[in-house]
Amino acid sequence: MKGMDMQGMEMKKGDNAKKSAQTKSHNGVGVVKSVDSDKGTISIAHEPVTSMSWPAMTMTFKAKDKAMLEHVKAGAKVEFSFVQSGKDYIVTKIK
Ligand SMILES: [Cu+2]
User: Ligand 1 centre and the CA of 66: distance in Å?
Assistant: First the structure.
C-alpha cells in the first residue's frame, strides 16, 4: 500500500485518475445566473439532480479551474458535471 501511494505522488496523472474514481460525479442541467471569474464561482438555476436528491434550485458552485468559466455567460443553458468536496460542490465540466 505504501508503495502504491508513493507511485501516485510521483505520477500526477495516475493520482488524479485515482481521485476521480473515488469521488462520485453528478450531472446537472440548468441556466447560468451569474459568474464570478475572480472567485471562480458560478451560480446556476439547476433542474432536479436525482443522484443528489436535489429539487430544482439556484445555488453556487465552485469551478475546478477558473479558466472553465471564461466562456460561460449568465443566461446560458448549460450541462455540467460536479463532485461534492466537503460542503462545496465543484464543477468539473461545463458546456
Ligand atoms: Cu442545488
Answer: 20
